[in-house]
Amino acid sequence: MTPQSIRTKTELLAQLDLVAKQGYATNREESEEGVASVAVAVPSASGLRLAINASAPVFRLPPRKVKTLVALLDEAAVRLADLTS
Q1: Tens digits of per-residue pLDDT, 40-84?
Q2: Residue 1 within a domain
Q3: I need a labelling partner for 18 at 20 to 30 A (CA). Which of 26, 39, 48, 70 fits?
Q4: Residue 25: which of 51, 50, 1 has the closest Cα?
């Protein structure tokens, strides 16, 4: 746990709603201080539940870079989906 960790069911549900709306998840020092990450789901027609994630030190992944990283992860997720179908 860090000071940024989700602590309540209400916070968790709000975060899950946000992830569903924007199509990706972020973590800014919620699991480990100094670390940020972005994750996207890997599409799957077979029912597999997969995700791809990129992590970096917080100073290397400022909020302004998240959309660019999401686009790269989405591209990689599609390629990964092709390998698993």
Answers
A1: 999 988 888 999 999 999 999 999 999 999 999 999 999 999 888
A2: no
A3: 48
A4: 51
